Recover the amino acids of this structure.
């Protein structure tokens, strides 16, 4: 039977102590027994261990905890690994599991005994957390991870993490007992096409070596990944080039390798060729070296919705890949939570446990949003079904830590995982002095908004009942639910306060700098909410002149929010800054419109009732395109791009309708594929109802296509696959301008 400390908040190496009542080991241990007693934290300690362990990360960690205070006659700390005479007495207490440890704090000594070097390190990390308490509790901790590999894959599209951010990440992984970091940023030119065959230049190589060293300090396996599939040739020359690249990385200290074949098309997608190459690497590099971790591969069909079981891709990998090679899997879809049925589908096909690549909190397809809410939705009963669980994070490294903290908690002890509790502890860990304000911000910045994958998250959970009650009572009956009104009003004030306090905070400035545009927007959302609440109050009580001024103020805030959205985070894919987009803004906009309509009816005025305006509507029978959002900036409209290979069926089409006939100039398309213009037809429907075909002309960019609408009044346009066969394309761009 497992016993656990009550849930609470904890931060490693924080400056202030925290109370024992609000404390929990991170990640949640398998067994924690307290003896209901404590001792003063020793000021000096004596480290008793085998001399051969002097250079272990665990020993360095103890030395860092008691800098300059390790003395011969200090409080004794015994460090050992299973099989050592020093901890022979505790042999039965040490878990017989990789990375397990036993920690015992007694009145006269501390014992940390690991099943292996990593277990010893994790035992010291647990001790470090206990040292944040006012007194050191007498405890016995028996602990080990449920999953052998737990960590992060830096595999997102967009701006890769900085060197400093990666170094901070690796320290964070060590503290939270994550043991894998896969380096595979899509925009690293030496990781992917076209430069994967080339060695890293000296400066980049030195940075990678620094990361490898930092990973070793924190008992993290540094995996270097390569992404050669888009232009690989299945010949000896490219095979040798790959071996040569592996050898160059080995010389930098890398002892773990991965090969990614995701998001590609063409020759590189052949399962038999992939298996042949990977087996060669495994046989002639991994096994020959002897000190290299198991090879990991990401397949081309890496989720169920893309897999063609009858086509044999996955079964070919399962049958032909060496059994020691790990195969990654994202679940039923590109973005999906993992459960028992999803594992029961994939494991028999791969003939091994799938290595889970969980695409959360990655936001490279919703770059205008921050995903800072709780981690939930994954099965708590699948620890025996997975070979690993790694998270693909946001390009904002510090903001990703809220999710990564909870992923560490989940992957260590699935059955005891509590998503809400873990989320609150993560926030406390990131900003212990301003956790209250960060929690307010994170609670309203957690959903993804509309997106092509249809993956959504809860947002504004605690405030949802009040928002709903206020909106329904006013929009339907013109009445104000006073209780809900006060709750929403208080929330708006808390939003404004939290934004101000966080922007001025000197704690964790890297995090604040990452999220600053969203903090600016968040404050405006709170101010807008206040004005809207005032509008419904003034309308209901007949304060005509006050309403007009408040209405103008609300409009001014709408303009400011639009300017923030058009100024910050102007990436070419999903530009802008969205905050509170799932519950707060829809409710406030609904109340703005309803109060203005009621005012117009009362006063016979014609104030503009629109809070937001979307002039375009997208429809598509291509499933991967059907949910893509459409955006407008100035006089330019655009459909959000997609990072994945699009399986565009014959006669499948994408249609974009206008709210009224609009004069269009150029329509610009990029399907990421050469000579594709003859396989698709672009048509516009003019104001008279007739359809007209536009010529798609290649532009300077190899795959960019431009069509001139000829200043026609256009009701809608559509792009259709007329090739007669399925086309595998990318959807990099679909934009147009109004004249």
């Amino acid at each position: 039977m497992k016993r656990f400390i009550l849930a609470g908040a904890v931060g490693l190496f924080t400056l202030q102590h925290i109370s024992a009542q609000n404390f929990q080991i991170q990640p949640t241990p398998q067994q924690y027994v307290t003896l209901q007693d404590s001792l003063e934290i020793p000021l000096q300690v004596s480290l008793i261990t085998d001399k051969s362990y002097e250079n272990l990360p665990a020993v360095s960690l103890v030395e860092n905890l008691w800098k300059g205070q390790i003395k011969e006659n200090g409080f004794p700390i015994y460090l050992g690994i299973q099989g050592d005479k020093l901890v022979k007495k505790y042999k039965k207490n040490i878990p017989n599991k990789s990375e397990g440890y036993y920690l015992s704090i007694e009145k006269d000594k501390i014992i940390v005994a690991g099943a292996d070097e990593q277990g010893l390190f994790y035992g010291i990390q647990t001790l470090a957390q206990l040292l944040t308490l006012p007194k050191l509790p007498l405890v016995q901790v028996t602990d080990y991870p449920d999953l052998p590999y737990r960590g992060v894959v830096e595999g997102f599209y967009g701006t890769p993490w900085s060197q400093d951010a990666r170094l901070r990440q690796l320290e964070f992984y060590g503290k939270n007992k994550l043991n894998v970091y896969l380096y595979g940023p899509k925009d690293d030119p030496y990781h992917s096409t076209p430069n994967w065959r080339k060695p890293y230049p000296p400066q980049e190589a030195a940075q990678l070596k620094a990361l490898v060293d930092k990973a070793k300090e924190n008992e993290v396996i540094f995996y270097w990944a390569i992404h050669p599939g888009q232009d690989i040739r299945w010949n000896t020359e490219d095979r040798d080039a790959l071996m040569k690249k592996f050898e160059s990385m080995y010389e930098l200290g890398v002892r773990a390798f991965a090969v990614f074949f995701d998001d590609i098309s063409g020759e590189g997608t052949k399962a038999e060729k992939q298996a042949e190459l990977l087996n060669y690497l495994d046989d002639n590099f991994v096994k020959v070296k002897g000190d290299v971790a198991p090879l990991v591969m990401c397949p081309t069909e890496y989720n169920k919705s893309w897999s063609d079981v009858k086509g044999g891709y996955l079964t070919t990998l399962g049958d032909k890949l060496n059994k020691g090679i790990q195969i990654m899997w994202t679940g039923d879809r590109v973005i999906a939570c993992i459960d028992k049925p999803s594992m029961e589908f994939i494991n028999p096909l791969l003939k091994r446990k799938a290595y889970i690549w969980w695409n959360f909190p990655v936001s490279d397809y919703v770059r205008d949003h921050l995903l800072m809410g709780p981690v939930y939705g994954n099965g708590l009963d699948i620890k025996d079904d997975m070979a690993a669980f790694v998270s693909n994070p946001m390009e904002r490294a510090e903001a990703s830590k809220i999710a990564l903290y909870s992923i560490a908690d989940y992957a260590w002890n699935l059955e005891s995982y509590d998503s809400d509790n873990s989320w609150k502890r993560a926030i406390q860990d990131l900003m212990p002095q301003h956790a209250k304000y960060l929690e307010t911000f994170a609670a309203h910045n957690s959903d993804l908004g509309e997106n092509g994958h249809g993956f959504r998250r809860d947002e504004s959970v605690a405030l949802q009942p009040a928002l709903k009650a206020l909106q329904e009572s006013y929009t339907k009956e013109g009445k104000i639910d006073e209780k809900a009104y006060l709750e929403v009003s208080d929330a708006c004030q808390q939003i404004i306060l939290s934004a101000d306090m966080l922007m001025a905070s000197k704690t964790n400035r890297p995090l604040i700098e990452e999220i600053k545009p969203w903090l600016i927007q968040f404050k405006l959302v709170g101010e807008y909410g206040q004005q809207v609440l005032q509008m419904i109050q003034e309308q209901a009580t007949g304060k005509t002149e006050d309403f007009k001024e408040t209405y103008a103020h609300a409009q001014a805030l709408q303009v400011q929010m639009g300017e923030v959205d058009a100024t910050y985070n102007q990436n070419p894919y999903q530009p802008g800054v969205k905050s509170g987009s799932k519950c707060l803004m829809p409710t406030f906009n609904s109340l703005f419109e309803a109060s203005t309509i009621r005012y117009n009816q009362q006063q016979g005025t014609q104030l503009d009732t629109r809070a937001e305006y979307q002039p375009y509507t997208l429809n598509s029978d291509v499933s991967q395109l059907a949910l893509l959002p459409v955006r407008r900036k100035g006089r330019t409209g655009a459909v959000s791009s997609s990072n994945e290979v699009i399986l565009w069926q014959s006669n499948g089409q994408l249609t974009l309708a206008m709210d009224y006939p609009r004069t269009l100039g150029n329509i610009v398309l990029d399907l990421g594929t050469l000579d594709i213009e003859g396989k698709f037809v672009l048509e516009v429907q003019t104001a008279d109802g007739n359809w007209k075909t536009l010529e798609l002309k290649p532009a300077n960019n190899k795959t960019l296509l431009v069509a001139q609408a000829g200043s026609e009044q256009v009701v809608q346009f559509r792009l259709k696959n007329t090739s007669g066969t399925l086309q595998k394309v990318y959807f990099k761009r679909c934009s147009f301008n109004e004249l």
